């Protein structure tokens, strides 16, 4: 006798009863790219519906999405002119944005990207020397915490940066500020559109000397373990779709929350399929569900506005 698995799939109501993985609005984090000034909105050709925005427009946008269930945002600063001092300036783009968002909105978690790639002349995430870079990253994280950030997220992949940041935050009384570390950030080819919007394309070489080799699994586990030992509260795996195995391994091995970044190249590729009628829009739900199914606690994605709008349609009768 054989089992009749098709009985579980005969209609939407039955399929829903047997569904194992579900998404919720609280699962999603929206990346936002902030520029200086007021009334600025700069569309990005390679990223549908994504723009660099000044903080006034950003706050309006967040308000609209909060009504649909948005809980968390991830902020990136994009200066008009390069210069790493801006990254930790108390009046810098991100520092100012944090304060204005906190003054204007309630119940929104602010996570801040801690990196140098948008601020360096060469587009790299460091200034050449590892430990000197870590000292600057700690200054950036501290400036974000002072401005009111809820979580700081170093994405640079320097060795020891979590140690430097945790030590600096603790010394200045910010022991309560969690660190979301990009512990497993791979030297991926899926970052192109992000580099356009963040103005962070390297002027020479690549990032393979500090981002993870995409052939490696155990090295990623070592990086994650080291960051947790240094004080990381949560860890990020980036990208998501080609690295679902890494998300799954990390979920099985570690007890901290596992975040996954559904990156810009993945977003652009999926939009291409939909816009050219090569896939139904449901593919977005499928992709996001796969990331959670692999073990992600939270998902950073440019599809956040879409899923906030469409989630009920896909998870209801």
TrEMBL record:
The keyword Acyltransferase does not apply. 5-aminolevulinate 1 binds at residues 195, 207. It is an enzyme of class 4 (lyase). The active site is at 185 (schiff-base intermediate with substrate), 238 (schiff-base intermediate with substrate). GO terms for molecular function: porphobilinogen synthase activity; zinc ion binding. It comes from the Bacteria. GO terms for biological process: heme biosynthetic process. InterPro entries: ALAD (IPR001731), Aldolase_TIM (IPR013785). The keyword Zinc applies. Transmembrane segments: none annotated. Mg(2+) binds at residue 223. Belongs to the ALAD family. This is Delta-aminolevulinic acid dehydratase. It comes from Thermospira aquatica. The gene is hemB.
């Amino acid at each position: 006798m054989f089992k009749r698995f098709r009985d579980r799939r005969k209609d939407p109501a039955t399929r829903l009863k047997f569904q194992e993985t579900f998404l919720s609005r609280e699962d999603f984090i929206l990346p936002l790219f902030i520029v200086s000034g007021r009334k600025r909105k700069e569309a990005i050709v390679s990223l549908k519906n994504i723009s660099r925005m000044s903080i006034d427009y950003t706050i309006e946008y967040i308000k609209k999405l909060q009504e649909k269930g948005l809980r968390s945002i991830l902020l990136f600063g994009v200066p008009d002119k390069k210069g790493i001092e801006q990254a930790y300036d108390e009046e810098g783009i991100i520092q100012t944005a944090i304060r204005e968002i906190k003054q204007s909105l309630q119940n929104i978690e602010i996570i801040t990207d801690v990196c140098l790639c948008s601020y360096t002349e060469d587009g790299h995430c460091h200034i050449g020397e590892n430990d000197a870079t870590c000292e600057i990253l700690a200054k950036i994280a501290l400036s974000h915490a002072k401005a009111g950030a809820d979580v700081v997220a170093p994405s640079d992949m320097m060795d020891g940066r979590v140690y430097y940041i945790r030590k600096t935050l603790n010394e200045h009384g910010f022991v309560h500020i969690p660190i979301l570390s990009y512990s497993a950030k791979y030297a991926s080819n899926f970052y192109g559109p992000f580099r356009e919007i963040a103005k962070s394309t390297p002027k020479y070489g690549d990032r393979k000397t500090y981002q993870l080799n995409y052939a490696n699994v155990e090295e990623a586990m070592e990086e994650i373990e080291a960051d947790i030992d240094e004080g990381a509260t949560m860890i990020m795996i980036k990208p998501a779709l080609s690295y679902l195995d890494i998300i799954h391994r990390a979920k099985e091995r570690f007890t901290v929350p596992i975040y996954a970044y559904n990156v810009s190249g993945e977003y652009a590729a999926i939009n291409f399929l939909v816009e050219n009628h090569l896939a139904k829009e449901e593919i977005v739900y499928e992709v996001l569900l796969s990331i959670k199914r692999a073990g992600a606690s939270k998902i950073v994605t440019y599809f956040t506005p879409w899923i906030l709008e469409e989630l009920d349609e896909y998870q209801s009768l």
